[in-house]
Structure formats: structure tokens, C-alpha cells
């Protein structure tokens, strides 16, 4: 799908986007691929997979990934966590505060963390330690996007959708000042959008 088609529906956000990084169709295809892989790797899991969505960015991915997994894999349950990293400006520090914790015990469960993006890796690194301390049977990660050039701490991310350039991107859950999350594709904002905010 070309950029013109990816942005053809004329939504309010289209004119703010400089260029598309990943189209809606690419996202849909990749999610089905990831779900197929996860389903194959968990075919023997009896009590289902416990999906842990990290709010808010991963909400779109969680919804689409869970539905795709449901069509081809074991059953799932959904949990939601909200964390906030104490950062300076736009960079996170690795010190994380829990805003919303898990609602249930994950002891002996197969946990799959559903993340929209791994940037520095600091949030995920902290989260993995936190979840592992709660005695699950396993903890793995599926991340739709990863920025290899931004990584500060390596986190074993078993399933990755797309490696993307180290640019500030919005859409499909990713925000700028809480906006653009509803965009069905991922793109880079025009410089003037930052200038007017
Ligand atoms: C984003 C994203 C990841 C984290 C990745 O969340 O959803 O959780 O940053 O960054 P890192 O690898 O550098 O730690 P954010 O804190 O922006 O919150 P949001 O999901 O509510 O937008």
C-alpha cells in the first residue's frame, strides 16, 4: 500500500503527518503473523495465555492481537497494567511507578506482555523483573514496534513486529501529547505540529 492510499480517508490527523512509516495493512498482516507464531509456540499450554497489556499505548495492539490469537491459538485472559516512568523530558529514567497493578495472581501462569513499542527498553526491563518476581510459569514479550538504535538496556523480546528508525512516531496507540493514538497507521509528524504545541 502506498502512502497516498494509506492516508486516503481524509481524517483530521492526515494533514499533520509528514510520512507514513507503517501502513494499516502492514500492521494487520504483521499482527496475524505474530499471533500465528505465538499460537504455535503455545499449542501445549492448557490454561491459556495471560496477556498483560501495558497502557495506554498498547491498547490498539492488544485488541487486534487478542482477536487474531483467539482465531488460531489457545484461549487468553486479559490483564492491564499502567506504569509511569520518571523521566527527564521525553527520555525515561528506568525508575517506574505502578499506576495500575494486575488484578489477579499470575503464579504458574504463562504470561505474555503486550507492548506497543520498545524504545530505550527501560520500561520493559523493569516490568519483566516485576512480573518474574510473581512466580509465573513463563514471561515473554510481544512488541509491535522496536527502535534498535534507541536501546539502552537489552530486554529479551521474543516476538517483534517491526524494527523502526529512531524517530518520534505517532499512531496505532502511540501519542504526541495524548493525541494521534487512534490513527490506524504509524507515521512521523510534520515539524510544524511540534512548533505550534
Ligand atoms: C511508551 C510505550 C512503552 C514505553 C517504551 O509508554 O508504551 O511502554 O514508552 O519506552 P522505553 O522502552 O524507553 O521505556 P509511555 O510511557 O509513553 O506511556 P503511554 O503508553 O501511556 O503513552
List key phrases describing it.
single chain, 197 residues, alpha/beta, Rossmann fold, six-stranded mixed beta sheet, three-stranded antiparallel beta sheet, 5 helices, 33% strand, globular, binds 1-O-pyrophosphono-5-O-phosphono-alpha-D-ribofuranose, cytoplasm
How many domains would you count in the coordinates?
1
- Give the strand order, joined by hyphens, for the main sheet: 4-3-2-5-6-7
Multimeric state of these chains?
A: single chain
N- to C-terminal distance: 31 Å
Bound molecules: 1-O-pyrophosphono-5-O-phosphono-alpha-D-ribofuranose
Q: What would you call the structural class?
A: alpha/beta
Helix content: 25-40%
Describe the sheet with the most strands: 6 strands, mixed
CATH architecture label name? 3-Layer(aba) Sandwich
Helix count? 5
Radius of gyration over all CA atoms, rounded: 17 Å
Could you state the order of secondary-structure elements as H and E? HEHEHEEEHEEEEH
Shape: globular
**Average predicted confidence as pLDDT:** 91
Uncertain ranges: none
CATH top level class name: Alpha Beta
GO molecular function: guanine phosphoribosyltransferase activity; hypoxanthine phosphoribosyltransferase activity; magnesium ion binding; nucleotide binding
Subcellular location: Cytoplasm
Pathway: Purine metabolism; GMP biosynthesis via salvage pathway; GMP from guanine: step 1/1; Purine metabolism; IMP biosynthesis via salvage pathway; IMP from hypoxanthine: step 1/1
Protein name: Hypoxanthine phosphoribosyltransferase
Amino acid at each position: 500500500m502506498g502512502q497516498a492510499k494509506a492516508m486516503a480517508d481524509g481524517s483530521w490527523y492526515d494533514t499533520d503527518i509528514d510520512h507514513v512509516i507503517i501502513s494499516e495493512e502492514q500492521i494487520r498482516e504483521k499482527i496475524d503473523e505474530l499471533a500465528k507464531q505465538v499460537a504455535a509456540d503455545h499449542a501445549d499450554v492448557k490454561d491459556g495465555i495471560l496477556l498483560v497489556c501495558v497502557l495506554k499505548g498498547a491498547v490498539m495492539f492488544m485488541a487486534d492481537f487478542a482477536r487474531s490469537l483467539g482465531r488460531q491459538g489457545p484461549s487468553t485472559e486479559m490483564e492491564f497494567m499502567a506504569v509511569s516512568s520518571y523521566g527527564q523530558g521525553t527520555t525515561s529514567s528506568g525508575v517506574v511507578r505502578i499506576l495500575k497493578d494486575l488484578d489477579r495472581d499470575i503464579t504458574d501462569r504463562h504470561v505474555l506482555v503486550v507492548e506497543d513499542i520498545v524504545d530505550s527498553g527501560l520500561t520493559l526491563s523493569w516490568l519483566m523483573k516485576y512480573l518474574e518476581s510473581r512466580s509465573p510459569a513463563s514471561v515473554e514479550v510481544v512488541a509491535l514496534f522496536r527502535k534498535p538504535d534507541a536501546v539502552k538496556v537489552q530486554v529479551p523480546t521474543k516476538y517483534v513486529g517491526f524494527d523502526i528508525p529512531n524517530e518520534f512516531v505517532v499512531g496505532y496507540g502511540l501519542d504526541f501529547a495524548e493525541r494521534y493514538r487512534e490513527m490506524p497507521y504509524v507515521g512521523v509528524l510534520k515539524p510544524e505540529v511540534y512548533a505550534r504545541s
